[in-house]
Amino acid sequence: MAAEGQGPTAGEYIRHHLMHLTNKEQTFIVDFSVINIDSVVFSVLTGLIGVFLLWLGARRATAGVPGRFQAAVEILVELVETQAKGVIHNAASRKVIAPMALTVFVWIFFMNFMDLLPVDLLPGIWHAVGPALGFKDYLRVVPTADLSTTLGLSVSVLLMCLFYNVKIKGLGGWAHELVTAPFGTSKNPLWALLLGVVNFLMQMIEFVAKTVSHGMRLFGNMFAGELVFMLIALLGGFAALSFSGALLFVGHLIAGTVWAIFHILVITLQAFIFMMLALIYLGQAHDAH
């Protein structure tokens, strides 16, 4: 622990910023009754912002010369629609999947965007308000740096894939695919049974692997970005404690600016990748083996 009258050490600072505001004490045991309140709140808030902006774009849409905001929304909608057409060849399915993909992209972008806020801005405000209200002095503001958020999103995509597998192929057709792909079947009953078991296990492994990797990819990138911002913030903190603080402070400003500019590309790319993988997995659910 830090000495009395001094600030936290670098390790204590990072550990504190990596703790969630929860409804009960966190343990190392998996406990599904523990809710990360901060992730839920910021997910809902960023979702409402995304919905409001899309609604505003639709409300302001005109047949004449579009303004900058309308043009930006139209470019985004056209981009998502083009990607959906290239993967989902069923026009009826695209009426649901394309808006879903647009929602996912916008929502994840805004959740990722929370990483660009100053590291201590909202936690600092919560430090003054939270304990006074009876809450713990913990707050993480990037929902996608929380594994429960990203896995929740990927599981939602999995459920949609299961739904379209049944809808497009029928329950019997999908059940047949589960035991015949990818290795096929045999006329010999014993070999057919053996291949059926192997095929089914391979299908289950594929579903689990796609879902876990889908969520872990987004989480890993955003968690790493969050850590880099914390380290840059520590560089500024050390500047105030060092005789060569001026140089450290300049390095803090340069590193923070460069990483923030680069991170704008990262958060956009991660939202796009998650959306594209969702489209690809849903497109695979429409394909017959």
Automatic annotation (TrEMBL):
CDD domains in the cross-refs: ATP-synt_Fo_a_6
Stretches that traverse the bilayer: 40-58, 190-209, 229-254, 260-282
Keyword Cell membrane annotated: yes
Gene Ontology CC, one term: proton-transporting ATP synthase complex
PROSITE patterns: ATPASE_A (PS00449)
GO BP of this protein: proton motive force-driven plasma membrane ATP synthesis
Chief place of localization: membrane
Subcellular location: Cell membrane; Membrane
Pfam families linked to this entry: ATP-synt_A
Molecular function as annotated in GO: proton-transporting ATP synthase activity, rotational mechanism
Record keywords, A-Z: ATP synthesis, Cell membrane, CF(0), Hydrogen ion transport, Ion transport, Membrane, Transmembrane, Transmembrane helix, Transport
Keyword Transport attributed: yes
Membrane topology label: Multi-pass membrane protein
PANTHER family reported for this sequence: ATP SYNTHASE SUBUNIT A, CHLOROPLASTIC (PTHR42823)
Function comment: Key component of the proton channel; it plays a direct role in the translocation of protons across the membrane.
Family: Belongs to the ATPase A chain family.
Protein name: ATP synthase subunit a
Organism: Tepidimonas charontis
